[in-house]
Write a structure and sequence with these properties.
The protein has about 140 residues and is α+β, with helices and mostly antiparallel strands. It has a four-stranded antiparallel β-sheet with strand order 2-1-3-4, covered by helices on one side. The chain starts with a strand and ends in a 21-residue tail after the last helix.
Length: about 140
């Protein structure tokens, strides 16, 4: 894809309710990035702005040096999977995280390397081989 540069990204509704305020970051080509935070902190809204599914109130979004603020989603070369449908309960935690890489036919060695990088970024320890069906809503583990 190339480089994504985000500068002072802001999203507000009716100029009153600010949901993303002055978010900036660079994502370099082949970099693996994960957004983690509490519910309502603006993760999904930020991803929606990058994908072009949500208008940017203020700030600059560049992909490969081109301002994409007004570009259609189809012109951005990015995609988004909505969080409600992103997990497969019959797969392990690792398999869920690696699913996108498998669909892009990333070589197995690179997939394993990227998963190791992801593990070092996470704050909470995760058992990578656990099947997510065990943690479905309504199970005994709630």
């Amino acid at each position: 894809m190339g480089k994504i540069a985000i500068r002072n990204l802001k999203k507000s509704y009716d100029d009153k309710k600010v949901v993303v305020q002055q978010f900036s970051m660079d994502i370099h080509e082949h970099e693996f990035v994960v957004f983690v935070g509490p519910s309502g902190c603006g993760k999904s809204t930020t991803l929606r702005m990058i994908a072009g599914l949500e208008d940017i109130t203020d700030g600059v979004l560049e992909i490969n040096g081109t301002n994409m603020n007004q570009s259609k989603p189809s012109d951005r070369g990015v995609a988004m999977v909505f969080q409600n449908y992103a997990l497969f309960p019959y797969m392990t935690v690792f398999d869920n995280l690696a699913y996108g890489l498998k669909m892009r036919k990333v070589p197995k060695k690179k997939e394993q390397k990227m998963s190791k990088q992801l593990r070092t970024c996470l704050v909470y320890p995760i058992c990578w081989s656990v099947n997510l069906k065990r943690y479905q809503a309504g199970s005994d583990n709630e």
